[in-house]
Amino acid sequence: MSITRKTSAEENLIGDEEKNAIIKGMLYLVATPIGNLSDLSHRAIKVLREVDFIAAEDTRITQKLLAFIGVKKELISYFEHNKRERGEIIAARLAAGESCALVTDAGTPAISDPGEDLVALCAERNIPITSIPGPCAAILGLTLSALPVGRFVFEGFLSTAKNERKKRLNELASEKRTFVLYEAPHKLRATLSDLHITLGNRKIAICRELTKLNEEVIRTDLEGAITLYKERDPRGEYVLVVAGNPDAGADNCFWENLPAAEHVSYYIDTLGMSKMDAIKAAAKDRGLAKSILYRQLNIDKN
Ligand code: SAM
Predict the structure, then answer these.
(1) In angstroms, rounded to a whole number, what is the distance separating the alpha carbons of residues 83 and 104?
(2) 242-252 pLDDT, tens per residue?
(3) pLDDT number for residue 300
(4) What is the DSSP letter of 185?
(5) Atom of ligand 1 at shortest distance to CA of 108?
(6) Do residues 244 and 199 lie in contact, with contact meaning Cβ atoms separated by under 8 Å?
(7) What residue numbers bound the domain in which 272 lies?
């Protein structure tokens, strides 16, 4: 008797009905189109149709999406300024066994939007969460950038608060990996200029109006981008994909191959730091919380 094994692709096609049944008490993160309604998946439609209620960043926008797919459903708002109080209400309804779909204005919930907080709250309460995949502007930008994307960093929106912005930009200056930013059109010129001042000239892909009629990807460098946007007005939605600095840290990353204890000893022995200060400095170098480095060093704080 011969046994025919199924490939994983075949396995993936099996049991869709069972896999897609709506589960009581589940939070569904539903990705929605970022400019092209045809990108709404069958699965997303099914979830929106069958959950008990939908939490939406802007109920008017989601109402239009629901009208497009012919779904009538209870909608409650969940956005930046009501997320604490609404999060509690949503979590309580989920805990009581209702199912909820979370959608934001566009794209994948929790990526640069308040969905992140609801996920954290539900995880804390052991409420099951699943994600219905779909468009995400950052991922589209990366795929179209023609820059190295084997490793990348997502930075979202740069802060508009002066000090925080400066700090982030300085950190990005020594980032080896390609990084992705979101930007609003009225801030594009300032951001290109700040990037150029802090990073020098770098390759950049300016991805505009992705999935829409006027989708455009300009692959240039920061100087080229600044010149271009002197001549034209920024319009629409932007993802900026910026090349990392491959030479970053080449000189000052002396600790890269050192075990944590030797890294700390270096600061004590060579720079005469106290043990506390040395641990603080080493933790900062390694991008670790002090408590984690303590654990690595097996040091009892007391
Ligand atoms: N959660 C969303 C996602 O998965 O992409 C992102 C939400 S964030 C509040 C909105 C930002 O995403 C916009 O300001 C813009 O930078 C970027 N974005 C959204 N849609 C876009 C599009 N069609 N083309 C380019 N960028 C877009």
Answers:
(1) 12
(2) 999 987 765 55
(3) 44
(4) G
(5) 4
(6) no
(7) 260-301
Q: Is the beta carbon of 266 within 6 A of some atom in ligand 1? A: no
Identify whether 247 is part of a domain: no
Q: Would the CA dihedral through 57, 99, 71, 21 be positive or negative?
A: positive
The one-character DSSP state at 208 is E
Q: In which element (H, E) is residue 181 found? A: strand 178-183
Q: What is the CATH number of the domain that holds 120?
A: 3.40.1010.10
Task: Answer for the pair 107, 30: CB distance below 8 angstroms, yes or no.
Answer: no
Looking up residue 213, the CATH number of its domain turns out to be 3.30.950.10
The reply to whether ligand 1 has any atom less than 6 angstroms from the CB of 237 is: yes
Where a domain ends, among 114, 135, 156?
A: 135
Does 1 have pLDDT greater than 60? Answer: no
Buried b (16+ CB within 10 A) or exposed e, 147-178: bebeebeebeebeeeeeebeebbeebeebbbb
What's the number of CA atoms in the CB half-sphere (13 Å) around residue 214? 7
Strands of 216-221's sheet, edge to edge? 152-157, 178-183, 238-242, 203-208, 216-221
182 ligand 1 Cβ < 6 A: yes
**155 Cβ below 6 A of ligand 1:** no
Give this prediction's pTM: 0.81
Beta carbons of 213 and 248 less than 8 angstroms apart:
no
Q: Which residue has the higher pLDDT, 52 or 253?
A: 52
- The pLDDT tens digits for 19-44 are 889 999 999 999 999 999 999 999 99
287 and 238: one domain? no
